[in-house]
Write a structure and sequence with these properties.
The protein is an alpha/beta fold. Helix content is about 40%, strand content about 20%.
């Protein structure tokens, strides 16, 4: 690594011996190192030098590490600066204070220097990803090539019918309602791309509607247009004070509204395409792929995967395969709870923990065990004060091509499904394992099952279960089981399920879609 590319670490500790120890090992690992014995010296270094990560003691004179971190975070320049506390304190209260003050992690004294270096490396890489993507959250509500969905709200049924007709004639998908209460309920199911609302309505008016939308996490980023018969400066300014996208006077007619909507969509599509292009380029340069291009070949089984990120933007699902030896294959499916690509940052971090834990487990444990892998992942995540606050569901399966035994363990996951061929039977395996990082003891244990020729194992994330049809009804487990029971499913499990799921949802997916089918070939 060239000097210009070296990352710079600020080490803050009033103990000279600890400062010199950490600095020595940072330099051995090709990092630049700055030292400070207190917060005052640290502020001076931060103001004069570019720092990529801070390692700070908690107990210091005049200002402790927690207060120092809060003050650093209050500076816009250092809002995303990685911050790790190195401290003898390790109570739950200390962990809470670390998070509250803006810290990213805690390392407890006495510490293993290898662990410290590994955490520095991981946090720097995670932060590089976060900087690349974290500033573009507004892009997550832009549009794909499907029809743009418009929610039109007006208390006059004649107006709603007129505008609905014209908007649909222009190629938009439009749902029209006559009250704010109905609009809120509809929006939760319809997931509009744009909301157009009248202002003067009985009961709850358009301004109040806009305020309700602004406090709703699902709706607040949706572009919002006011439609009104009033056009005074005061009315227009009040609308823009509420962060609306545009303002249209009713007398202008449907053609003007359509032109406004089209202009907004064109602008957002352009912004979205640019952001996605940058995002994929950055992911490629970082080698940060969390879903492989295809499933591996493995003797005795036919394995297929299907992954569709939400609106084409990297999301929170991750998939991994490990060929343990000629007889055993490990399959891992994870889902970071959170829609759209904002969860991708955490998915990448989790994928790193998974891969590290799998390698460590396979090297040290003679008996291959999904539960043992999850225990190790849980131990690592539980110590990470940032990642442990994110809920993740994980399914881990080990398949054997000599005994055709399957071992399964999950952490707060969607149950795996098994379609037995002779006779036809649907088995659902559920794990009692807790969400990763939720508790120091995750209660993970393996479930074993013998497979026969023609049996199919199904692993999936909840994006499939929770996606809805045009009437707002979820695909659900009952519909899934109906597909599994069909004769056509046995012939080509992946294609049959994809076909039925796409037909049901009309490709209006509400989250990342991840599906793995594992079929036992004729023995």
């Amino acid at each position: 690594m060239k000097d210009a590319e070296k990352k710079s670490i600020l080490v803050i500790d009033d103990d000279l011996t600890i400062r010199k120890l950490i600095t020595h090992h940072l330099k051995l690992n090709n990092y630049n190192s700055f030292e400070a014995k207190n917060a005052k010296e640290a502020f001076q270094i931060l103001s004069k030098s570019h720092i990529d990560l801070v390692l700070s003691d908690v107990t210091m004179d005049e200002m402790d590490g927690f207060e120092f971190c809060e003050k650093v975070r209050s500076n816009e320049k250092h809002r995303f600066l990685p911050f790790v506390f190195v401290t003898a304190k390790n109570t739950l209260e200390d962990k809470f204070k670390a998070i509250e003050s803006g810290g990213d992690d805690i390392i407890t004294k006495p510490f293993d220097i290898k662990e410290l270096i590994l955490k520095v490396q991981a946090l720097l890489k995670r932060t590089e990803i976060y900087r690349t993507y974290g500033l573009k959250k507004s892009i997550q509500s832009t549009f794909t090539e499907r029809k743009t969905r418009i929610l039109f709200v007006d208390d006059d049924p004649t107006i709603t019918k007129l505008f609905k007709y014209n908007l649909e004639s222009a190629g938009f998908e439009c749902t029209a309602v006559n009250s704010v209460d109905e609009a809120i309920r509809t929006a939760k199911v319809f997931h509009p791309d744009i909301i157009i609302s009248d202002i003067m309505m009985p009961g709850t008016d358009g301004y109040q509607f806009r305020k309700k939308v602004l406090v709703d996490d699902e709706l607040k980023s949706v572009p919002f247009i006011f439609l009104t018969a009033k056009a005074t400066d005061e009315d227009i300014l009040e609308g823009y004070d509420l962060g609306i996208t545009d303002y249209v006077v009713k007398t202008a007619g449907p053609k003007i509204v359509i032109a406004k909507v089209s202009a907004i969509i064109k602008s957002l599509k352009s912004e979205r395409n640019k952001a996605i292009s940058e995002l994929h380029q950055a992911a490629a340069s970082l080698g940060a792929k969390v879903v492989p291009d295809k499933a591996p070949t493995f003797e005795g089984y036919e394995i297929k995967q299907w992954h569709i990120p939400y609106r084409g933007i990297p999301g929170g699902d991750f998939i991994d395969y490990y060929k343990v030896d000629d007889d055993n294959l490990l399959i891992i499916l994870g889902d970071v709870m959170g829609k759209k690509w904002g969860a991708w940052y955490f998915a990448f971090a989790y994928a790193g923990y998974i891969r590290s834990s799998v390698r460590g487990t396979l090297q040290s444990v003679d008996v291959h065990s999904p539960a043992e892998i999850l225990k190790r992942v849980n131990d690592a995540v539980y110590q990470d004060s940032k990642i442990s606050e994110v809920f993740v569901a994980i399914s881990v399966i080990m398949i054997n091509n000599k005994t055709f035994e399957i071992k399964y363990c999950g952490a707060g996951d969607t149950p795996i499904m098994i379609r037995e061929s002779q006779p036809t039977k649907i088995t659902k395996l559920s794990s009692e394992g807790l969400l990763i990082g939720f508790s120091k003891k995750g209660e993970y244990s393996d479930i074993s099952l013998k497979l026969k020729s023609g049996d199919v194992v199904l692993m999936l994330t909840d994006g499939i279960i929770e996606s809805r049809n045009k009437d707002g009804k979820q695909f659900g487990e009952n519909k899934l089981e109906d597909v599994l029971r069909s004769e056509e499913f046995c012939n080509n499990p992946m294609e049959k399920l994809k076909e039925e799921f796409i037909r049901y949802t009309n490709q209006n997916f509400e989250d990342d879609i991840s599906l793995i089918t594992i079929k036992v070939k004729d023995q």
